[in-house]
Every structure is written in structure tokens, then in C-alpha cells.
Design a protein that fits this description.
Elements: E1 2-6, H1 7-17, E2 32-37, E3 41-47, E4 51-58, E5 60-63, E6 65-70, H2 71-79, E7 85-90, E8 96-101, E9 104-111, E10 126-131, H3 132-140, E11 158-164, E12 166-172, E13 176-183, E14 190-196, H4 198-207, E15 216-221, E16 225-230, E17 233-238, E18 257-262, H5 263-277, E19 284-290, E20 292-300, E21 304-316, E22 319-324, H6 325-334, E23 339-344, E24 351-355, E25 358-365
Antiparallel strand pairs: 1-5, 1-7, 2-3, 2-6, 3-4, 4-17, 6-9, 7-8, 8-9, 10-15, 11-12, 11-14, 12-13, 13-25, 15-16, 16-17, 18-21, 18-23, 19-20, 19-22, 20-21, 23-24, 24-25
Length: 370
């Protein structure tokens, strides 16, 4: 096996593959990165049995072959190679693989390539295509709300629901729920439900090129796996067993009080009082809503009090209501519209937060009983 490639191509590929390399492997082979060179390209793989990834890059091949190197060390040495081009070579039957660049040389021990669990293409029964920009937005607007410590595994993932050509992502920790929708491309009317681990989704959006707004992701799913394919990357992930419970009934259909505020002013005010709120037992912030304005306040026996008043368009009854301040800020950080709408039904009922110009996003949060 011998080939030459550009350092940046190999480095970018390794930075993607390393995310699927096991941190605490059950066997040493899972700490490795598998590579296979043919006459056209180099294929790199990482697999920890929960997620697996394949990346291909162009190379100049002299001798075809395969090898497995320690993922961490492989990445570190490639990152520190001095020249723009790198030559890699080794015998398939030997346990030494060499890397040369700009006068630098390193020999790395290999692991048996035949023992590496290759990333497979599973049988699937559903698929759709979505732009990487839209998928990234859906993930950003939901994945933050997944549960971190709930006993039910399904709440530790992000639910995907495909009905016809509409995809819905939903995440909840039972105290708040975040729901985002987008239209997708399907060859025919598709239906499917599955739950994806948040680590998979957070890693996935790191792979998207922010400058490539025309890029599309091909998503396929079964009752055990979901795959994402785009550019030179193929990612497979196990899904979480279980079905997301019905969430439509949680979204308030009407409101006794409706509020619209400038999102930047609202977020700035909440961040200000959060300095005190986070010192209280439940990180509690209180909204006192009356015609014309909203007072945002917090108090702590150890720190003191903080409050700030902002202008607000209020329709309906006045209301005073309290929340975990982090639940409010989490939503405001990912909202893109300049105006935020809040729908309330009394002091102890969940509220609905939306963007004025985006009916595809809904965020419901349960108040704290102060």
C-alpha cells in the first residue's frame, strides 16, 4: 500500500472520522481508523457500533491496500506534518505504516485490518432528501431540549416524524418541548418515526459546509438504523428504541394572553436577570406582564434582586408567571426572527413561544410554581 495525497484533504477527513472512533473501546481495534486505498481514492472509516462514518478523498495511488492505525495518533501526526503533500506507505502483512512529508518521517504500529468492523449499508424502508441548511436549522432548534437524565431512553434523543413530505423534529425533557418542521423531497409519500441520539446529530451538523447552501443530504431509515449521505461522507447511526409520545396535544391551541416583544431586548433583559436567577434554587425568573410592558425579575437570598422592564404588545389579561431562566434563554438563542411571540393561559399553564415570521417552530415550557 502506497499513496500520496494533500495534507488538508486527509486532515479534514480524519477530523470527521475521529468522531466515530471509540473513546473507551471494548477492544483495541475500535480505537483505530481503517483506510483502504484503491486506484482512485482513499476510504477512511471509524466505527464505535453506535455510529459509523465513511469519508473518501482523492489520492495518487501507487500500490493498493488497507491498514488500521490508532485514530488519535494518526490525526496528531497528520496535523503536524510540515508539507502540503504527504506520502503514506506500508505492507499489508507488516505491522508498520510509514508517513513522510517535507523531511519528516514517522513509523506507526498498525492493527489487523481484517479485524476492523467495517461500516455496512443497512437495509432501509424509508428515505427523503433535505438541504443541509434546513437540516442544520431543524437540529439546532430541537436537540438542545433533549433530556439528560430521564429514565426513558426515548426522551434522551431527538424524534424524527415524516408524514408525506413534511419532516418534524421534536425533543423534550418533559418540562419543555421544542418542535421544528420543514418540507423535504420524497419520491413518494413517506411515513416514518424514529429517534436519533443527540451525539449523532451534533456531530452531523459539524460536517456541513456553511458556504454550500445548495447541498442536499440523503436520509434513509429502518427500524434500527438511520443513514445520512452527502458530499464524500456517509454516516450511519443506531436509533433509540421506542416511539415518541404524541406531542400535538401539548401545544396550546388558544391563549388568554398574547405578548409580542423585540427578541434582542427580551433576550438581553433575561440574560441580565439570569445573573441573579442562577443563584436561586430553581434558577427562577419571573415575568410580570401588563398592557404595554413586561417586567423581568429574579431574586436570590444570597445575592439580591435584579429586574428590567421592556416594551411589549400585550393583548388579553395581565399575568405574573415564573420559569427556569435557562429554559427561556435556550430558546431565545436559536430563534432567528426579530420578534418573539408568547401565548399564555394563566399563571400555572404551559406557555407557547414562537417566532412571528416562522410558523414552523414551536417551543412549549412549563412554569415554575413560585
Amino acid at each position: 500500500m502506497k499513496f500520496t495525497c494533500y495534507k488538508n484533504d486527509l486532515l479534514e477527513a480524519l477530523q470527521i472520522v475521529i468522531r466515530s472512533v471509540a473513546v473507551k473501546p471494548m477492544t483495541p481495534i475500535l480505537s483505530g481508523i481503517y483506510m483502504k486505498a484503491d486506484n482512485r481514492s482513499l476510504e477512511l472509516q471509524g466505527n464505535n457500533f453506535n455510529t459509523g462514518v465513511i469519508v473518501k478523498i482523492p489520492i495518487n495511488t501507487e500500490v493498493e491496500g488497507q491498514a488500521v492505525l490508532s485514530g488519535k495518533k494518526f490525526l496528531e501526526f497528520i496535523r503536524n506534518m510540515p508539507d502540503d503533500t504527504i506520502t503514506l506507505f506500508g505492507e499489508d502483512a507488516a505491522n508498520i505504516f510509514s508517513i513522510e512529508s517535507g523531511g519528516a518521517h514517522v513509523d506507526l504500529l498498525t492493527m489487523p485490518a481484517v479485524e476492523f468492523p467495517k461500516v455496512r449499508t443497512p437495509d432501509t424502508f424509508g428515505e427523503f432528501r433535505i438541504s443541509s441548511t434546513a437540516l442544520k436549522s431543524l437540529i439546532r432548534k430541537t436537540v438542545f431540549a433533549v433530556s439528560k437524565d430521564d429514565d426513558r431512553p426515548v426522551f434522551k434523543g431527538c424524534g424524527f416524524e415524516l408524514v408525506g413530505n413534511q419532516l418534524t423534529l421534536v425533543a423534550t425533557n418533559t418540562h419543555r418541548i421544542s418542535i421544528a418542521k420543514e418540507f423535504v423531497r420524497c419520491d413518494e409519500a413517506e411515513h416514518g418515526n424514529f429517534v436519533v441520539p443527540p451525539e449523532t446529530l451534533r456531530g452531523l451538523i459539524q460536517y456541513f459546509d456553511p458556504n454550500d447552501v445548495e447541498n442536499y443530504v440523503e436520509v434513509k431509515f429502518s427500524d434500527r438504523f438511520v443513514t445520512f449521505k452527502f458530499d464524500n461522507i456517509y454516516l450511519i447511526s443506531r436509533i433509540i428504541d421506542g416511539d415518541f409520545p404524541p406531542y400535538d396535544k401539548i401545544i396550546p391551541n388558544d391563549a388568554i394572553t398574547r405578548v409580542e416583544v423585540n427578541k434582542i431586548e427580551f433576550r438581553t433583559a433575561v440574560e441580565f436577570v439570569a445573573l441573579v436567577a442562577r443563584e436561586s434554587e430553581y434558577h427562577m425568573v419571573t415575568f410580570d406582564i401588563v398592557p404595554g410592558h413586561m417586567e423581568i425579575s429574579a431574586d436570590s437570598p444570597d445575592v439580591g434582586e435584579a429586574n428590567k422592564t421592556i416594551e411589549a404588545d400585550v393583548t388579553g389579561d395581565s399575568v405574573k408567571i415564573s420559569f427556569n431562566v435557562d429554559y427561556i434563554l435556550d430558546a431565545l438563542r436559536i430563534m432567528e426572527s426579530q420578534r418573539t411571540q408568547i401565548c399564555l393561559n394563566g399563571r400555572y399553564e404551559p406557555i407557547l413561544i414562537r417566532e412571528r415570521d416562522n410558523e414552523k417552530y414551536s417551543y412549549v415550557v412549563t412554569p415554575v410554581r413560585a
